[in-house]
Amino acid sequence: MSMTLDFLIKGGSVITGDGKTHLEKAVIGLSRGELVVIAPGDPEPGLSAGHVIDATHCLVFPGIINAHAHNCVMGPSMPSGSAAPSQSEVNWQRNRHLLAGTTTLLNVCGLALPEELRIGDTHPLDIQVSTAHSPANIRSALSVDGKGLHQRHLQMTVETALLAGAKALGEVGGGQTLGGGAQEYKFIPQAVRRHTGRDIHPRIARRLRDAVVGRYLRPEDGANDEQLQDELVACGLADILDPAAARNLILASVMPSVELALAGFEEIARCAERTGYPAIFHNSTPSVKTLLGVAERYPKATLIAGHSNHPMFQPREAVDYAVALKRRNVIIDVSTLDCTTTRWRNDPANLDALVEAGCVNTISTDFAGGHWDTIPEALHRIIRKRQMDPAAAIALATGNVARTFPQLAGDRGFIENGKRADLVIADHANCARIRHVLIKGKLVVSDGVVLSDG
Ligand SMILES: [Zn+2]
Question: Quick one: 296 and 165 in the same domain?
Fold first, then answer.
């Protein structure tokens, strides 16, 4: 049989994304943006192609689908509806994701609009947005920031955003509105600076928050004046803050948005059941019980527990809650955050615990103040530590995500006949060294460089 293809990729070791299949050596053929040939061994003599990639000593896997990322769109940033990131920031984020093998990305800030995707959009990465335009989510954003929200964002509804092309619901709640990451690296440091003129490290912000309201954001769990004074001394802040001032500052920064953010869980879970779109929730200590509650009340909805390795959990807690959520059919997503190589604020203890307990369905980056580690770095770590075999690990970022988000990625995520030709070709000994990336059958990263599509 003779057949002419657009691309032929030969000699590579191929992981198909189904969680099991790992072909020692295989041929992949691409035509008109789709996968049309997948066969073990060497190419048949009759097979020819416009372009041939020799993938010997490489690992070939489906393009990564990152369904929890931020600041890749010039619209309201984060669930706090903060001012839009600059074009330069957006380009930097998009390039980093693409060079890390992500071919489909869901920007889950939640209040950006599908029409804002097109601003400055000549980038080859396939970027889509989610929607969290419900009344409580918008009020919660306004209570903590909201500087990026204009009339068109405030008037948007979830239904209208879905009609305009949003691909999922969420992120409901966020580090800004639920006392998490962005409170540590942005809002608490800003408040301390306003009040005292001094800059503090996010780790110090975390200690102050934990001292005043605890990991569950309950002021009644907080330290008494004497304990808080000791903590201020340990943090090197006793010369500029007394316990009462520190308490007021943390309460004012963290608490006003919490109730509103949790009210958004109910609105969006109900919407997820009604519309059939999956919904992403901020999963951390102050929100996990609310998430368990909505999972109980909306059993037909596809609900995703975002970044279930959130640093506000202890490892044991993260696993126990993940098991309880899975029992209610909630999808357990973990995020790389800055857990694997950067370790600016976070470490991999919760990620390891969840992977080793067999709880993880999908993996994403989230944002971690822009310090996010890449998905393949985390996958390489999982593979090297023998926590999972390579086929199962790669599925966390490909096939499993496609199954969870059919409206976003139903046509991709697997190396299978008829699927969209989104592919990554990486170093076989380290899947985080990305050499080539193809999207819709077009080479967009070649030998580690982003090709401009003009
Ligand atoms: Zn979050």
Answer: yes
